[in-house]
Amino acid sequence: MKHIVILYDSRTGTTKQAAAWIKEGLQSVDDVRADCFSIQEADLAVVRGADGVILGAPTYFASLPGAMKTWLESHAAGLGFAGKLGGAFATEQYVHGGGETTIQELLTFELCCGMAVYSGGSSFGTPIIHLGPVGLSGNIEEFRELFETYGKRFATFCTKQSL
Ligand SMILES: Cc1cc2nc3c(=O)[nH]c(=O)nc-3n(C[C@H](O)[C@H](O)[C@H](O)COP(=O)(O)O)c2cc1C
Fold this sequence. Notes:
Elements (H helix, E strand, L loop, with lengths): L1 E7 L5 H14 L4 E7 L5 H5 L3 E7 L7 H14 L5 E8 L6 H14 L3 E2 L16 E3 L7 H17 L3
Parallel strand pairs: 1-2, 1-3, 3-4, 4-5, 4-6
The structure holds flavin mononucleotide (FMN).
């Protein structure tokens, strides 16, 4: 059994919705248990016990929100990320609004903590996911399959690893 936790920030609910779809994708894979927390409500003991962690954020000025960066920096020592599998996703308002930059920053944080990171990958065909999934807040429903597929791929990869 692999346990995967999603940790997200969300002010107006879009990233929270994306996180819920990723959780559905994770749970569609056998022998995977998934939990989903906002950073404000995160149970750090549960996070520390996970095999994999996926971070998600809205895009603010082509970056992650300052509040989430502050939260990650202040909790880094207690997250227990080292040696685990990490992933990241983002939402944005505009096409080319910086969602991929946000994901890169989240993945960089995970790498600094000693995680191995997974993107979702292009080798599985459509939907192509290079760094992680990004959804647009104006029509987030159209990205449901993308987020669910990412969750499924992440969980499938995680179950094959002995990290
Ligand atoms: C302060 C602020 C800055 C933002 N900057 C960007 C931006 O640079 N690019 C973009 O595409 N959207 C930007 N947005 C829009 C949000 O990224 C987008 O609506 C997101 O999906 C909101 O997520 P949430 O509903 O989970 O809070 C910004 C929103 C706020 C409040």
